[in-house]
Amino acid sequence: MSEEMGRLLWLPAKASPPDPDEFLSEALEGWKRQQLAQNLGLGTIRRRSRSVLRMTSFVGKAPWEWLPGDADDFFSHLRGVQNLSHNTVRAYQADVKLFLDFAGDSAYDWNARCGQLFGTVFSQVLSELNRATHAQETGEASKRPFSMQELQDFFDLADLEPERILNSGRKGALAAWRDAVMFKTIYAWGLRHNEARHLILADFSRNVRAPSFGEWGVLRVRQGKAMKGSAPKQRTVLTVFDWASEMLDHWERVGRPRFGLHRSTPLFPTNTGRQLDQAYLRRRFHALIGELGFAPGLDIHSFRRSYATNLQIDSGYDVSFVQLQLGHEHASTTSIYTIASPDYRARELTRVLTGTLVRSGALLPDPDRKESP
């Protein structure tokens, strides 16, 4: 009699279904590699992946199951319920569209694998029918530049704030002085407020063709607005206002040293030597605007709008010069900033009519002559 020993039998196990989350992670990782090959920044890549994951969470379906109606629901929720800005929603749409273009491209095998695993493929759910137009195409009608009187009133109040704080016995007079100088700097060089936050002393230098500006004749902007996925754009801005160089020279000699900081720290530092927070600047700006009671439509970017308008319309600089100062790639962008004042239009009308009369040989009216009764 023989004794049988136990034997290990291998029974066929039921194949586990494909994991959608794992496949999506692989696709996003492949997208990351493709973007790195394009030399895009890691911050941009992470933001784009977050946009895809956020829509996935909202829709409750994997991207290869999305329909145009899902995109409509998601982006209308961002705009109408969460009240995100036009440009922010457009950025989300661009991220999602880029991912679907990548995943559905025949140069890669994501669609083939997706079809084998899930029986469906990636398809584009964004088109001109449900995609927000560029802000420059729609125009931000609610935003406007300062009038010259509003600009003067704003700077006067900002200059008065340190004195009011000192008289009240409160702290913060030095910070209020810093804020006033920073707001004027944003206007005087046509800066975005994020560009102004990053300024250091070494960004300024002499302009040999305009020695009267001293050490403040040329500004090298290092943190200009970047194209999607690119490094910050740099540009050179020439100083055009005498009062601006005098203001910064006084701030550097008298105001900034009171922070006790090194030259490499920001031109407008906090008490700890850090850059000012963008939210703080917006709060300070709106506090002053609210006290003045100006009509709606003004934000910190209105300084830049006013700079462009005043240079071209009131000071007579050529549009190409203004375009270079602002760092715009296209002159059409600069034209959006340029809104003629009523006084300018009246002067232009007088100039053209006078020229027409001169060419026709007609007698010009004498402004001092009184009409006979």
Description:
The protein is mainly alpha-helical and 373 residues long. It folds into 2 domains: 20-138, DNA polymerase, domain 1 (Orthogonal Bundle), CATH 1.10.150; 148-346, hpI Integrase, Chain A (Orthogonal Bundle). Helices cover 53% and strands 4% of the residues. The protein is built from 15 helices and 3 strands. It has helices at 20-37, 42-59, 68-81, 86-103, 110-118, 135-138, 148-168, 173-188, 193-197, 242-255, 278-292, 302-314, 319-326, 331-337, 342-360; strands spanning 204-205, 218-224, 233-238. It has a 3-stranded antiparallel sheet with strand order 1-2-3. Strand 2 (218-224) and strand 3 (233-238) form a beta hairpin. The longest helix is centred in the middle third of the chain and has 21 residues, at 148-168. It is globular and about 80 Å long.
Structurally, how many domains make up the residues?
2
Which architecture name of the largest domain does CATH use?
Orthogonal Bundle
**Rounded mean pLDDT score:** 84
CATH class of the largest domain: Mainly Alpha
Strands, total number: 3
Structural class: mainly alpha
- Number of H- or I-type helical stretches: 15
Helix content: 40-55%
Beta-strand content: under 5%
The largest pleated sheet is described as: 3 strands, antiparallel
C-alpha end-to-end distance: 148 Å
The poorly predicted ranges are: 135-139
CATH level 3 topology of the largest domain: hpI Integrase, Chain A
Dominant shape: globular
Radius of gyration: 30 Å
Strand order of the largest sheet: 1-2-3
Superfamily (CATH H level) name of the largest domain: Intergrase catalytic core
Query: What is the element string, with H for helices and E for strands?
Result: HHHHHHHHHEEEHHHHHH
